[in-house]
Amino acid sequence: MKTFQTKMFHHQDTKTPGKTIKFLGFSPSLVSWCLGGKSCLMFLVLVLLPGLALAAEGLSKDKMVEILKGIDLRIRSGGDYKALVYLEQHQKDKPDIAQEALVYRRDVDQKLMILFTKPKTDAGKGYLRVDRNLWYYDPTVGKWERRTDRERIGGTDSNREDFDQSDLAGQYDPQFVGEEKLGNFTVWHLKLTVKPGIDVAYPLVEFWVDEATGNYLKRQDFALSGRLMRTSYDPKWDKLFSDIKKDYLWFPHEIHIYDEIDKGNSTLVIIQSVDLSSLPENMFTKAWLETKSR
Questions:
Q1: Binning pLDDT at 50, 70 and 90, where does residue 131 land?
Q2: Which domains does the chain have, with CATH numbers?
């Protein structure tokens, strides 16, 4: 598994041109003939231009969908999932805020629970996602409130999608932007547009996917107007074998999220540990979360 240091990335949208196409294997005499004769035009039309057209076309729609399905499959556990997560919120002109939370998932039922354990002032607060509805519970008032997928989890720059399983192939239509360099890595740059009738946090998303591993390394989220809302980097990935899945579960060890509206605000998410053991059958309920909040 490839890992690399965060310092390779800079928080800016730096575009690097795709690879220069090189035609190798032509003899010097052929090059000389091409440069000196009118027949070169026919040579370009019949031999070189089809290759240029193919390179310009980039990845096919089927290939891009395959890449998105690969991301979805890597993140999906196939069973239950529990993670200990550390969150650090940086806000300009304010002290940093550190939090810890337990993230529970049951991917087969698309259920998610986030329970804050630290600091003491936030302990017992939590989120519950059931039947595509996201609920927030505050034990200080004993009240549940429905929230959208744009909800800033615990007041940070993260949202529900940063902790949940992935369904990129089912939610978005991909478009190929180009092959680029991100740090020392060669990546596919994809632009995703939400499919009609699908409710997501951000309708327009751009992904930079590592060609070698299939893991995404950078993501930018846009509003429907095209305004950039946030940029996130996932520079380090870990994996854990799932007995139920009979394959590895991949998860980002670090997520660096930058608020593009309130410049200077950012969030660091560290997934400290992951456990794929079975969870209690009835835990994904409001009543269960309330018992942990008392």
A1: confident
A2: 29-58 (no CATH), 62-292 (2.50.20.10)
For 240-263, letters b (16+ CB in 10 Å) and e give eebeebeeebbbbebbbbbbbeee
Angle at 167 between CA 181 and CA 211, to 5 degrees: 20
Tokens of 186: 């060669």
- Single out the residue of 122, 127, 129, 128 nearest to residue 100, CA to CA: 122
Residue 188's identity, in one-letter code, is W
More confident residue, 8 or 173: 173
Task: Record the pTM.
Answer: 0.79
Q: Does the pLDDT at position 56 exceed 50?
A: no
Which phi and psi angles does 118 have, rounded to 5°?
A: -145, 150
Contacts 24+ apart (CB under 8 A), 176-179: 176/58, 176/59, 176/64, 177/206, 178/17, 178/18, 178/58, 179/18, 179/19, 179/58, 179/211
Q: What is the separation of C-alpha 55 from the centre of its chain, rounded to a whole number of angstroms?
A: 26
Mean pLDDT of 217-229: 97
Q: What is the pLDDT of residues 72-101, one digit of tens each?
A: 999 999 899 999 999 999 999 899 999 999
